[in-house]
Amino acid sequence: MKKFIAYIWGLVVFASLTGCNPYDVEEILISRDDVSLTIKGEPIFVYDEGTCQMAYNADRYECRAMNDDVTQYFVLKAHERMTHAFQEFTADLTYTYMGNVVAEKDLLFRIEKIDNSIGFAWLWCSDAAIGIVVKLF
């Protein structure tokens, strides 16, 4: 019985140290090569060049992507300029999900990867398991 309790205690300590986050940032985010919004492993928005538009406003630190009839979209409004890998910043995120508009404020994101040659940045919010790939023009 003591071994069992020690085993359970070890699992609790391990889970608390690792954060027990079942979402793999590599699988959910870094492997993507398109402008997209993924939440808890589910693609919510995926940019399609033929039916979507995107924009980046460098002065307002704002990224937008939407389909042509604006029924599906996301808007990321960072509180500071996104410039380099591993930078952490807060941002507000508004997006559509199942016909509803969802707004989340003051999310903490981290730039997991940035590729200046194509202008893409891979952003991850570990608290909410939100992955976003944006194009910074």
Summarize the structure.
With 137 residues, the protein is of the alpha+beta class.
Q: Which descriptors apply to this entry?
A:
9-stranded antiparallel sheet; globular; 137 residues; 17% helix; alpha+beta; 2 helices
Q: What can you see in these coordinates?
A:
A hairpin with a 4-residue loop joins β8 (120-125) and β9. The chain has a nine-stranded antiparallel beta sheet with strand order 2-1-9-8-7-6-5-4-3. The protein has two helices and nine strands. The N and C termini lie far apart (61 Å). With 137 residues, it is α+β, with helices and mostly antiparallel strands. It is globular, with a radius of gyration of 17 Å.
- Average pLDDT metric: 84
Low-confidence stretches: 6-18
Rg, nearest Å: 17 Å
How far apart the termini lie comes to 61 Å
Identify the strand order in the major beta sheet. 2-1-9-8-7-6-5-4-3
Q: Helix proportion of residues, in percent?
A: 10-25%
Number of strands: 9
Which outline best applies? globular
Layout: helices, strands, pairs:
Elements lengths: L1 H17 L6 H6 L5 E4 L2 E5 L5 E6 L4 E6 L5 E6 L9 E10 L2 E16 L4 E6 L4 E6 L2
Antiparallel strand pairs: 1-2, 1-9, 3-4, 4-5, 5-6, 6-7, 7-8, 8-9
